[in-house]
Amino acid sequence: FLPVATRNRRFYPNGPDGPDAIDVPTMAKSGCMPYYLWQEENVRVLGVPYKQNVTMYIFLPLNATRANVRALQEKISAQTINDIVTKMKMKSVSLLLPQMHVSNSFSLKSALQQLGLYALFDKNTANLYRLLNVQRYSGDDSEDILEALQDTKENAIKLLLEENPECQVLEKQGVDRVTCLKDNCRAGDGFCVCCAETDDFRRRRRDTTMDFPDQMNSTVYVNEMLHKIDL
């Protein structure tokens, strides 16, 4: 559709004889498109091509009204559409179509969980606060996200040292990730690393924890993930 061809034209929600005709921005297009006359239902079917081999099929009853369109919806199924598409022939047409914006979205959460990605959506195991646009404890700019979020033992140790540069790192054996994080330790690649607890360290940790941004002490996880399509 050429933008210069779009202008206000009359639109008839209840057919040309209806009382509620209105002016709406209407697109115009001429060319060869798939066409079929569904004679059993007195319906014209037109295929409007889009990019990436996508086609929008328009079903327009002759002398269309709201009631006719609603009745037609009850008669259309996936099999009906497939049968009609196989019968369509290319025909030279001129199309006037009200300007529209079509969008749709669907959840990726269940699909990702089926692939084994559970921790991302679990507030007890997710550790996404480093995605926030904040500065590190040392005052430096945030690290590269992809590198910092790698689930490695090295990153877990690095995070401990950022929290306390004087940390004496030790590794806990046989501790799962959830328990590890609850113990104020850091987990990575199946390892649990902690700071050796000394009286001096406990005091410094209590003092410095109060200065950390609230975001650092909050659980950050993904509640929902949507994929949106605009046509």
Structural class: alpha+beta
* Annotated CATH topology of the largest domain: Alpha-1-antitrypsin, domain 1
The CATH class designation of the largest domain is Mainly Beta
Separation, N- and C-terminal Cα atoms: 13 Å
The overall pLDDT average reads: 79
Number of helices, where a helix is a run of at least 4 consecutive DSSP H or I residues: 7
Number of strands: 10
Regions with little confidence, pLDDT below 50 for 5+ residues? 133-143, 198-203, 208-217
How does this structure look, described?
One of its GO terms (molecular function) is serine-type endopeptidase inhibitor activity. With 231 residues, this protein is α+β, with helices and mostly antiparallel strands. Helix content is 24%, strand content 29%. It contains seven helices and ten strands. The strands form three sheets. Strands 1, 2, 3, 4 and 5 form a five-stranded antiparallel sheet that branches. Strands 7-9-8 form a three-stranded antiparallel sheet. The longest helix has 11 residues.
Characterize this entry briefly:
The protein is α+β, with helices and mostly antiparallel strands. The chain folds into two domains: 3-100, Alpha-1-antitrypsin, domain 1, CATH 2.30.39; 135-212, no CATH class.
Which labels suit this protein?
2 domains, 24% helix, 10 strands, three-stranded antiparallel sheet, Serpin_sf_1, serine protease inhibitor, 231 residues, alpha+beta, Alpha-1-antitrypsin, domain 1, five-stranded antiparallel sheet
